[in-house]
Amino acid sequence: MEDAEVYYDSAEPLVPKRAGLAEVREAAMGCRACHLWRLGTQTVFGEGSDQAKAMFVGEQPGDKEDLAGRPFVGPAGKLLDKALEEAGIDRGDVYITNVVKHFKWEPSGNRRIHKKPNRGEIESCRPWLDAELERVQPKVLVCLGATAAQALLGASFKLTQHRGEFVESGFSAKVLATLHPAAVLRMPGDELRERATREFFDDMKLVARQL
Fold first, then answer.
1. What is the pTM of this model?
2. How many whole angstroms separate alpha carbon 137 and alpha carbon 64?
């Protein structure tokens, strides 16, 4: 069976009902709804205030985030910080999380290389993200990358067609999808990387206007 077709138990029974964000975060630390807990060093839950007006959702924690236990603290996080700063958005005023809360990786020599989570892993972890959305209730929801956008807006969503647009959704928040900062950093060649960086920074300014 293809990896993309493997499904796991849902985290839904693990999410404490009528509990605050801190209690939900604590419960997520022991999540074993899918096999990724065996790969990750720890659960990397979202970070920020439940009063945040903007929520940023990425794909999954990377190597640096897995070790630190915090989202977006590696190179991609530094680029995000720079874009937020230029747009006039204080990172302390936003909530940042990922669709999947454990680091999925494969070995390459002495390095741990990111491996994209499959549909089953995303669905298994989705109740944690739903709990974050319910408790934060952001004014603006930003999908960082195609995986987050398709998880929240449907598998047919095309980031290449709708990047930088506020799109229709079932959420009360205004929703914008943009590039994942890690994808910006991986762009081949200086010209493509510089253009992607400008686009990413421009999208953060669009978010700032909504706030």
1. 0.94
2. 28
